[in-house]
Amino acid sequence: MNKKLISLIIVAILLLTSSNALALGGESYDEVSFELGKSLNPPTKLNGLPYGSSFFEQLNSFERTVFYARLENLDAFRNGVEDEIFFDVPANTKAEDLAVAFFNACYAFDFDHPEIFWLSKTMRLGYYSNSSGTVSRAFFKKPDTGWYNTAYSSKNQIVNAEAAFNAKVNEIVSAAKGKDYDKVLYFHNWLVENNQYNRFVYEGNIDGASQLAWSAASALIGNSNDTKDDPVCEGYARAFKVLCDKAGIISALVSGSVGELHMWNAVKMPNDLWFALDATFDDPISQSPVLSHKYFLKGSKFMSRTHTENGSITTYGTYAFPELCENDYPMNAGANLGDVNLDNKINTGDAVSILLYVVGEQNLIGEAKICADFNCDTMINTGDAVLILKYATN
Fold it and tell me: How far is C-alpha 41 from the geometric centre of its chain's CA atoms?
């Protein structure tokens, strides 16, 4: 990654907790500010649930209230006028618990909603509390730089950017035909073929890059004539998730290290298993465009050689990322994985073929054998038949 993002991580702690002691019926006013990023050594786990389809699922009820408040007030953030946007706080909430909920909810929102690309990554929490530390009111406080990231300065700019963004997403998703595998491949290839990694960041000139580079918009509607908008890894990963979300394919952003800070994706395939995808690594910087699939639908065995997940995306909690399949998705099976009898359908007949193979009543060779390993464990057994039956009866 880069020095700028590293600095964002370092300041993803309490930059200020100031007591301005604004006497309001015996209450004092305090603020907490931070930049969205990752902290290195979070002290606690969240609720311990595995990743299902969102980070939101791993929040407690109070954190979800803050999450919803952020989502439900997008119009207010977009309008950019209000300085304080209030949200509900449970009775008897202590200031330290409010800070934890605010941190975790904002980070979960950032990872679950990359389509909200125009919001500032500077977060400020304002609240009033009494002498015992019990919070009476809490709100999103407008940062000094405003509600927008620095690529935008007005509501009209954002409205126009959102329109272009949504149109491009619809165009790409509409062009992606076939099964989930075909669509995932199309999204990956489109991002690689229509982007190049931000050269300003690559060459260490962080200030030369637009803040757009860290958003999904960079890889989808960045200015082709202005390389400052070209994506970094976050741009590729966030754009991929936006496309998957629109297509109804479950995917997640994954943060961690490749020797430096990095972001990539995990995507859930129809065999109900998760695989990693790193479009950034498949778009190496070179004089001529390169389309690689080296990091396309890979398992944990392969990814662990270069990528280390960091389940901490807040100062206060550790999120669970999707658990990857150990082995890679078989690209030579492609969208036909599970279609053992090669009739372009995945149904009970394919499960029967596997069971007959297991008991020695039927032979599987060539493509049929490749497609039979539905759970990608390099073996063909009843486990594959069970998963196919589950898939066929959903």
Answer: 20
